[in-house]
Amino acid sequence: MKIGKVPENILKRSVFKQIKHRREDVLSKPGVGEDCAAVEVQPDEVLVFSTDPITGTAQNVGRLAVHITANDLATAGAEPVGIMVSILLPSRVREIKLRHMMEEMESVCRTLNMEILGGHTEVTDVVNQPVITVTGVGKVRKDALISTGTLQPGDELIMTKWAGLEGTAIIAEEKKETLLQRLPEYLVQEAVGFLDELSILPEAKIASEHGASVMHDVTEGGIFGALWEIGEASGVGIVADLPQIPIRQETIEICEVFDLNPYMLVSSGSLLIGCKQGNLLVEKLKEAGIEAAVIGRATEGNDRIIRNGEETRFLEPAGSDELYKVTAES
Question: In degrees, to the nearest 5, what angle opens at C-alpha 221 toward C-alphas 216 and 225?
């Protein structure tokens, strides 16, 4: 495609025609010349916004973009309503790639009852792979809004699903040939299937209804980064036990192939929850078929540590995610 705005005829057939799911509370729909979206809310409702780019992979970017933004909204206790999407494409990309990205986003939006509200598409030499930036809009009752900065000393920390969830799936798909030289095919295919576990909306809803004081999705920097961030946001210390952090064997073996720390690997699909009675919430989550475990607690002071038997590791702010050690080679 040529440099510049995506032509109107392509915009209509490969973008707008893929947007089919609608909500009654979305008053202004995407279209040529429409620069804003409007969502109707009640006097006691709050609109919640979040934005994220997808840059760590060129595969499944539409799918990942929607899930990551919806997850952010869910951690605030909000119901995701829709997304605004900015898509930057290199000139070598064919129109069919744009259409596939839109189909991916529309499919996830339909599953999560969200609407694509509008956005921008452009072809530019500034990027060398498609870059999607999504801004999500959600709504929540004012008295049900959850902030990341309200964790209190003594609160227990629950983690859902498994460490390194998203990163494992991305590596398994993008580096399949390399992995198959050392690992059995069934294990690699199982890891690719982790892409079906990326939504935290079910567990966030249960947690918000059963005493969660804080929720934080485990994204770049993995569970180590998320533990630091949740402590930093609330000004509290953290103590977590490494053996209690759930992790899949697929993640362990794939990380061994590339010499990665799975606890510092992007983990969208996993939710970190702070609450007073962790074991009760774990029971509620498991009743709904969601894996969960109490992995630690908040403490007085500012030390954030991981214990592994007699060993202690002090956590630090998340640096570059382990995923980039692999994708940088692509």
Answer: 55
- Distance, in Å, from the CA atom of 232 to the CA atom of 255, rounded to the nearest integer, reads 28
Counting Cα atoms < 13 Å in the Cβ hemisphere of 262 gives: 22
In angstroms, the Cα distances linking 214 to 75, 134, 144, 231 are 8, 24, 12, 11
In this prediction the pTM is 0.87
Query: Could you list the pLDDT tens digit for every one of the 330 residues in the chain?
Result: 776 567 878 888 898 898 899 888 877 677 755 555 667 788 888 888 988 888 777 788 899 999 999 999 999 999 999 999 999 999 999 999 999 999 999 999 999 999 999 999 999 999 988 999 999 999 988 888 888 888 999 999 999 999 999 999 999 999 999 999 999 999 999 999 999 999 999 999 999 999 899 999 999 899 999 999 999 988 999 999 999 999 999 999 999 999 999 999 999 999 999 999 999 999 999 999 999 999 999 999 999 999 999 999 999 887 789 998 997 765
Query: How many residues can be counted in the chain?
Result: 330
Residue holding tokens 């030390």? Answer: 303
Helices (H), the chain: 8-10, 61-75, 95-112, 165-174, 176-180, 185-192, 201-209, 222-234, 249-258, 278-287, 323-327
